[in-house]
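In response to reviewer comment 3 from the previous cycle, which asked for concrete evidence that the modeling workflow produces usable outputs, we include below a single protein chain processed end to end. The sequence was submitted unchanged, and the resulting C-alpha cells are shown without manual editing.
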Amino acid sequence: MNTHDFTAARRLLAGAASAALLLTAWPAQAQWLGQDYATYGVPMSNFIQLATIHNLNMIDAATPGDKKSAPASAPAPLRAEAPPAVQRNAQELAQRFPAAQRAPMAQAYQDSMEVYQKIEAKMGWSRNDVGGAIAAFVVGNYMAMRDTEVADEEFAAVARQMRNHPRLAGSFKQQSAASLRNLYEQSAMVGTFMALAQKSLQQTPQPTQQANLRAAARENLKLVLGADPERLRISARGAVLE
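The workflow returned the following C-alpha cells.
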C-alpha cells in the first residue's frame, strides 16, 4: 500500500496494538484463504438481502456524474444506531465456512472491525456511518480483486457516493435499526478483511491463496453491483462502472 492507502497501512494505525497484532498474524491466517474461501464466499445475509432487492440502486450509486440524482446539499450520514453486535455478526459471517475454520474466521472478522473503526476515525467520519462501511466493502473487495491500492481521497469519494445517492439512502432508511447495524458491521468487517488479506499476500505471496481471494472478491462485487465487477473502476471521481 502507498502512504495514501485507506486500509491498514502502518501510518494509519501506528500505535494501535490490536491492529499491529492483526497485521502481524495475517500471513499465518492467509492459509484460510484456500479453496473453501472461494467456494463459500461471504455469507452476508443482511447485505445480500438488501443488495438483491436494490441492485439497480447499487449500480446507480457506483456511477457518478448523474446530475439528476445528485442532492443539492450533502445529507447527514446515515448511522447504525442499534447497539453493537460485533461478535454475533462475525460469527454469522463465519458460519458457512467449514466447521474447523469458523472460530478463527469469526475472530478475524472481529479483529477487522477494530481495524475499520480506527480507519473510520482517521478519515474523520462519525462512528457507525453506514455509507462509509459500504464503501469499505466495495473498495476492500476491489483492492483484493485487482491486487491494487486505493488512496484516501478515492475511498472518501466512494463513501460520499454511498451516502449521497438518494435512492440508495432511501432504501436503507426503510430498514430496521437492527438491520442497519448488521449491514454496517458486516460490510466493514468484510471490506477490511479483504483489504488486509490482500496486503498480507502482497508481502508474502501465495499464488493459490491470491487467486482464491480474487475470485471471492469478484463474486462479492458481482453480488452487490448486479453487474460485471471487471467494469468497476475507482479513482478520485469515486466508483464508476465503465
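The first strand starts at residue 232 and ends at 235. We consider this sufficient to address the reviewer's concern, and the full set will be provided in the supplementary archive.
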